[in-house]
């Protein structure tokens, strides 16, 4: 890599090299691990769908929540999907479930230490999303305008 006298170019070049190294580390292929086991796909597929992210964010914001509370906080989620996501998040260690032998039975969910570390990353991502939302909306508008205009074919 050639050296640049422009600090902004040097910073961008450094970031590109840093990103490349990080990606190589993440996607390093181990011949002893079957190729169909991908940590990104396997681990994040459970915790990164739209419902699971909202579940983790809401439980993190309230510390402890019951099923009904989550159902009313997360607009549009069905009881079946909420149950599935809660089970998967519990199975992977993001949250714990405590059942109280009462009538009716009371069940509470809270984040585990692992889930709290994940929440910390989600908050960083959520802040970035909030900061960049205007850019995404503008890009969508530009795309729609471009898609609606007739294109010349030669």
Task: Walk me through what this model shows.
- There is one protein chain.
- The chain has 154 residues and is mainly α.
- It contains six helices and three strands.
- A three-stranded antiparallel β-sheet has the order 1-3-2.
- Helix 3 (50-62) packs across helix 6.
- The longest helix is centred in the last third of the chain and has 36 residues, at 113-148.
- The chain starts with 6 loop residues before the first helix and ends in a 6-residue tail after the last helix.
What labels describe this entry?
single chain, 154 residues, mainly alpha, Arc Repressor Mutant, subunit A, three-stranded antiparallel β-sheet, 6 helices, 10% strand
In short:
This protein is mostly helical and 154 residues long. It has helices spanning 7-26, 39-47, 50-62, 67-73, 79-91, 113-148; strands at residues 64-66, 95-100, 106-111.
């Amino acid at each position: 890599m050639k050296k640049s006298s422009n600090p902004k170019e040097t910073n961008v070049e450094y970031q590109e090299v840093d990103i490349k190294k990080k990606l190589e580390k993440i996607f390093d292929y181990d011949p002893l691990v079957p190729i169909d086991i991908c940590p990104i796909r396997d681990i994040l597929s459970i915790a990164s769908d739209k419902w699971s992210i909202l579940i983790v964010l809401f439980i993190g914001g309230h510390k402890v929540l019951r099923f009904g509370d989550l159902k009313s906080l997360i607009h549009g989620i069905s009881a079946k999907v909420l149950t599935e996501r809660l089970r998967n998040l519990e199975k992977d260690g993001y949250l714990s479930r405590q059942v109280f032998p009462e009538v009716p039975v009371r069940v509470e969910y809270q984040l585990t230490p692992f889930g709290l570390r994940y929440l910390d990353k989600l908050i960083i991502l959520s802040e970035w999303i909030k900061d960049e939302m205007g850019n995404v909306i503008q890009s969508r508008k530009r795309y729609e305008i471009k898609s609606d205009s007739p294109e010349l074919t030669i």
